[in-house]
Specification:
Strand order of the largest sheet: 1-4-2-6-7
Number of strands: 7
Distance between the termini: 35 Å
Strand content: 5-15%
Shape: globular
Helix content: 25-40%
Radius of gyration: 18 Å
Structural class: alpha/beta
Number of helices: 9
Oligomer: single chain
Largest sheet: 5 strands, mixed
Length: 232
């Protein structure tokens, strides 16, 4: 059952009925240990970029038409056969690389945890409209309405979940959100907001000696901002 506060996000705006009322499949996922009663780690929200639909989805979804996607009450949105695919419980191989990093940091600090590391955090895709996978490329090109809705939606998600650490796994999403916050004069006091390479990027694994990229940077962020040390 959806959190009632999530239903209010964006209501009366571009998405008249509310972002997650229109797109209930896209609510953020958070596990049983996102909040740890033992305070072994803080609350972390991982942010991906978007979902992807392909040519076969075009007859069944208006995802290529931004205004229809967000505004038209009769628009074709997420087909039934796609609803599991777009859910934010991301357990497929790409994101396993992120969860492996989380498990390593938990293990090195002798913190008992769920085998599925997503249970220790929250995950959310930033853009609400799927990108078009043409078979040649899967790059998302956001339109102004995408940027406005995505910024408003994540602002609401942050206020509901109150994470201590936000890690973007997409440079595009990260830059877009920072720009949105700057334009709206939104300041997040007490929340660390960082970005690392997408786990599908070659930089995520191949920059072992650099603290600026990939899993090296991610594990550093987890040690510094996510784990609660005994004397904290």
């Amino acid at each position: 059952m959806m959190n009632d506060d999530l239903k209010e996000i964006g209501k009366g705006g571009i998405v008249e009925e509310g972002v997650f009322v229109r797109f209930p499949e896209l609510v953020p996922a958070w596990g049983n240990h996102f909040w740890r009663e033992d305070r072994a780690h803080k609350k972390m929200l991982l942010i991906g970029e978007s979902n992807y639909f392909d040519d076969a989805d075009i007859p069944y979804s208006d995802f290529l038409q931004p205004q229809e996607w967000y505004r038209n009450p009769d628009a074709k949105l997420i087909p039934e056969y796609r609803k599991t695919d777009v859910g934010n419980w991301k357990t497929y191989k790409t994101f396993t690389r992120v969860y492996d990093c989380m498990n390593r940091i938990l293990d090195e600090n002798h913190i008992e945890h769920e085998e599925d590391a997503l249970c220790e955090s929250a995950f959310y895709n930033y853009f609400l409209r799927p990108a078009h996978n043409t078979g040649r490329k899967k790059q998302f090109v956001p339109q102004p309405v995408d940027l406005d809705v995505a910024g408003e939606a994540l602002t609401g998600v942050i206020r509901v979940l109150s994470p201590d650490l936000i890690v973007f796994l997409s440079k595009l999403a990260y830059n877009s959100f920072l720009k949105y916050c700057s334009e709206k004069n939104i300041v997040w006091e007490g929340i660390v907001i960082e970005q690392v390479n997408h786990p599908a990027s070659w930089r995520f694994h191949n920059a072992e000696k650099s603290a600026c990229y990939g899993k090296v940077k991610l594990e550093g962020l987890l040690r510094k901002y996510w784990i609660n040390l005994p004397d904290e």
